[in-house]
Specification:
The structure is a homodimer.
Chain A (H helix, E strand, L loop, with lengths): L5 E3 L20 H6 L3 E5 H10 L11 E5 L10 E4 L3 H9 L6 E4 L2 H9 L5 E6 L2 E2 L4 E2 L8 E10 L5 E10 L1
Parallel strand pairs in A: 2-3, 2-5, 3-4
Antiparallel strand pairs in A: 1-8, 6-10, 9-10
Chain lengths: 170, 170
């Protein structure tokens, strides 16, 4: 997110992210991605990724993928569209021990997850910019939650990665 | 602010800040305060501080103080109430070389300052909590601004202090 808490401009512009693009630097993404077995994403983010990738959805090559959407849809790109309650999906997935579930993309899905206290760990990459306005990562309307700060990772580009564990409802 | 960007709950509760209260730890406040000669604060924050301090306003003992307000008011507590344009005040103050001006408190004043690109340095203390809702530090509706990340300071309590310099409009 930007320092002021936005993940996109009002018109979904993400070009400001190029500010921290560095050859060979993925900000721990691959390592994190390797630890993940299930990937859950919102419908908007899914479509943005497909738009960048000529209609393909690369995460499905490595993970079991679910797209959260209100509109039922046939499986495509190796992705399952899920219209039911997100909490129910996570409870089902968590029955298999050791599942690392990566929920990506967008304020909608973050809000759904936070409403039900379903996030165990937060990794927030703060980009050294104020967007001033746009779409917020944290939309509000969620319960209070106590966190434990984990060590910060600072990158040469100015990107700062904040990591927190959930300590339970505050 | 909380990790999700709030500086108070909807009803101005600040008790969540006690989470990071530590005997003898002021998070660099005194050192920073020593470097300041002029202190500017919003009217709401001014009144909250006076409420905590039996009607007194301690910063006025050390600094030249201005309270930004819409309602003209007689000088009190060593404080000048300023109803004109904040930009004008800062331009006047900056004519004296070496002025370190500390603008404290509240989203209103942050927004006014950001609208006119008047903040040179940001220090944001992130408290390890999600408030979920409340009053935001960054209200939106301000211009885009490029920042340079300075070293992060991590405290045992979990408070993380982010520091940025303004690089000019992005």
């Amino acid at each position: 997110m930007s320092l002021d808490g936005f993940i996109a401009t009002e018109d979904d512009d993400l070009s400001w992210l190029s500010k921290v693009e560095r050859e060979g630097e993925d900000y721990g993404y691959e390592e994190f991605n390797d630890s993940v077995d299930t990937y859950i994403v919102g419908r908007r983010t899914y479509e943005i990724v497909c738009g960048f990738c000529d209609g393909a959805f690369p995460p499905a090559e490595r993970h079991s993928c679910y797209v959260i959407t209100r509109t039922p849809r046939q499986k495509e790109n190796g992705v399952t569209f899920y219209t039911e309650n997100l909490k129910k999906l996570l409870e089902e997935l968590r029955q298999d021990e050791g599942k690392n579930i990566y929920c990506d993309g967008g304020a909608e899905i973050v809000k759904l997850l936070m409403e039900d206290n379903l996030i165990d760990e937060f990794r927030i990459s703060v980009i050294p910019i104020m967007l001033g306005s746009g779409k917020r990562l944290f939309k509000g309307g969620t319960p209070m939650m106590d966190l434990k700060a984990l060590p910060v990772v600072e990158y040469d580009s100015g990107l700062i990665q904040l990591r927190y564990e959930r300590l339970g409802p505050s």
